[in-house]
Design goal:
Keywords: NAD. By secondary structure, the protein is α/β, with parallel strands linked by helices. It has 14 helices and 15 strands. The termini are far apart.
Length: 386
């Protein structure tokens, strides 16, 4: 770690980072990266620590003096401001970000992603602390291309569907489509962060993740994720594959998405952390436009990858079509494409993703297959013991 320099050749100083949501999927990988490859200290804030247990125990790990876990719910804990004051940088990863919740728990979704984030922004601004705020690619909503006639050749023009941080509009469905509660709350907190920067000099960076995938993402309800609700598409498909059930394609699986490996994405975040002069005041898409597929193509590829990693043959009917109303309930709506433009992050931080879709799926499904097998074995041994 000695002699580390930033992108401009300046020595990187050790800093203290208050990471809110450190116990989640992204937080656990970011903590791992910071502790193993940098000299920085982490004040890890979350209500759960399962995913970072290996970083906290035993007390003899080489970085034991560089990480502290604080079990705090940011909704109502006065200790939060003290931790932000102790740190040089705050990273806010806390959010409700499960698609079914946008529809069925819109109030929780809005409060979690806007109201609960307000004190974090306020404390950073009032105490002169830098903030890296995690938003979402959902803030873009629908593409301009979605409103063109189905047979319009303009639908193929990147200007109508590639999403750019500084020029693309944020287009949401009508108010009764409560699926947009998450995107709208996230957009408003982005606007607040930006306004704090403009009016009060807050140093900020906003991150818009595009489907970050990898080991430790929530995928088994009640074991490695919430016991209720419908998770994101890749987690849904993982569950179906593990249980040897058909993969459900919502409205034919025609929506298009891009997927990026968590380790590639964390490299980008580390560059933001260690290059404030290049990252402050910017919004960054972090995704992999090369890994673009329709949801149907994703289902087909995951079925093949899972057969390879598990040694099991595919089931007779690998996919079934379901309507969005049947799957998510009344009031659901969707975006057609989410392709990130990477110009700004490439220009500012020189970053590009590396891992192919096949490789990231193989890594993720290998981990999930192993974890699921262990969970089933433990459940069976408990049943036998009883």
């Amino acid at each position: 770690m000695a002699g580390r320099v930033d992108l401009d050749g300046n020595p990187i100083k050790q800093i203290t980072i208050c990471m809110i949501g450190a116990g989640g999927f992204i937080g656990s990988h970011l903590c791992e990266k910071l502790l193993s490859e940098t000299p920085h200290k982490v004040l890890a804030v979350d209500v759960y620590s399962d995913k970072i247990k290996h970083l906290l125990e035993p007390a003899t790990v080489t970085w034991a003096d560089r990480i502290q876990f604080h079990r705090i719910n940011i909704k109502n804990d006065s200790r939060l401001e003290g931790l932000i004051k102790m740190a040089d940088l705050t990273i806010n990863l806390a959010a409700i970000c499960t698609p079914a919740d946008y529809n069925t728990r819109p109030l929780d979704t809005i409060y979690s992603n806007f109201i609960d984030a307000l004190p974090v922004v306020k404390y950073c601004s009032e105490n002169g602390k830098r903030l890296i705020h995690f938003s979402t690619c959902e803030v873009y909503g629908k593409t301009i291309g979605a409103f063109l006639p189905k047979d319009s050749p303009l639908r193929q023009d990147p200007a109508y569907y590639v999403l750019k941080e500084d020029t693309s509009p944020c287009i949401f469905g009508p108010i009764e489509k409560q699926r947009w509660s998450y995107a709208c709350a996230k957009q408003l907190i982005e606007r607040l962060v930006y306004a704090e920067g403009a009016e009060n000099g807050l140093e900020f960076t906003i991150v818009r993740p595009f489907n970050w995938i990898g080991p430790r993402m929530d995928f088994i309800p009640g074991i490695d994720g919430p016991s209720e609700g419908v998770p994101r598409v890749l987690a849904c498909f993982s569950n179906n594959l593990l249980r040897r059930e058909p993969l459900k394609l919502v409205d034919g699986g025609e929506s298009q998405r891009t997927f990026i490996y968590i380790k590639d994405a964390i490299e980008a975040v580390l560059l933001m952390i260690e290059n404030p002069a290049r990252a402050n005041g910017h919004i960054f898409n972090v995704g992999n436009p090369n890994n673009e597929v329709t949801v149907r193509q994703l289902a087909e590829m995951m079925t093949k990858v899972y057969s390879k990693v598990s040694g099991e043959s595919s089931i007779e009917i690998p996919t079934i079509d379901v309507s969005s109303k049947e799957f998510y309930g009344e009031g659901y709506d969707d975006s057609d494409k989410r392709i990130p433009d990477m110009t700004i992050i490439n220009r500012q931080l020189g970053w590009n993703p590396k891992t192919s879709l096949w490789d990231l799926l193989e890594s993720t499904l290998t981990y999930q297959h192993r974890t699921y097998a262990e969970a089933v074995k433990q459940a069976m041994s408990k049943t036998t013991a009883n």
